[in-house]
Write a structure and sequence with these properties.
By secondary structure, the chain is an alpha/beta fold. It is about 45% helix and about 25% strand. It has helices spanning about 50-65, 85-100, 110-120, 125-140, 145-165; strands at about 10-15, 20-30, 30-40, 70-75, 105-110. A five-stranded mixed beta sheet has the order 3-2-1-4-5.
């Protein structure tokens, strides 16, 4: 519990990708949400696959150690017919999830459409709409960039809104 007597929860959000894995840290205290940090773990296609996955795992572990979240919201994979992209994203997702498991975080997995529906109000929202809503809901001075980081913040919000002491009504 926070000093105010309201329950405080810190969530990590992850938008997995082999080239760019977005991450975001959102704190919820009662009905109030605050962005603590966000960014992107980038890997070069010139690196060996194993090194790229290790970088994602190690940097995600460092983020978890620094911000001490207790839970994580992570996007599931959907790539239609692009199997190669789905496998690469799945490997990056696995590297990030291992870091979460090492820290014993509670994990919520959400389809991109579900995340968008939760934070924007429609599952068909585009990247700009997600960025705009993260700016509004978290009281940021500007829209979070890159869009991978905004998607990660949205995943964290999705977890908090679906697993907190109150439901989505906190946004109303």
């Amino acid at each position: 519990m926070a000093a105010s007597g309201k329950q405080r929860t810190v969530a990590l959000g992850i938008d997995p990708g082999l080239a760019n894995t977005g991450w975001g840290i959102v704190e919820r205290e009662g009905a109030r949400f605050r962005c603590l940090a966000y960014g992107c773990i980038s890997t070069s296609p010139d690196m060996e696959l194993s090194r790229r996955l290790m970088k994602i795992h190690e940097q995600m572990g460092a983020i978890i150690e620094r911000y001490r979240p207790t839970c994580v919201g992570i996007e599931t994979i959907w790539f239609g017919e692009n199997i190669t992209a789905a496998f690469a994203t799945g490997q990056a997702r696995g590297a990030a999830l291992v870091a979460c498991a090492e820290a014993a975080l509670s994990v919520g997995e959400y389809a991109p459409k579900n995340i968008k529906n939760t934070v924007v109000g429609t599952g068909d929202a585009d990247k700009r709409q997600v960025q705009y809503m993260m700016k509004q809901l978290l009281g940021l001075e500007r829209e979070p960039r890159p869009d991978h980081a905004a998607d990660a913040l949205a995943a964290a919000m999705c977890y908090l809104l679906n697993n907190g002491p109150t439901s989505r009504d906190a946004l109303r």
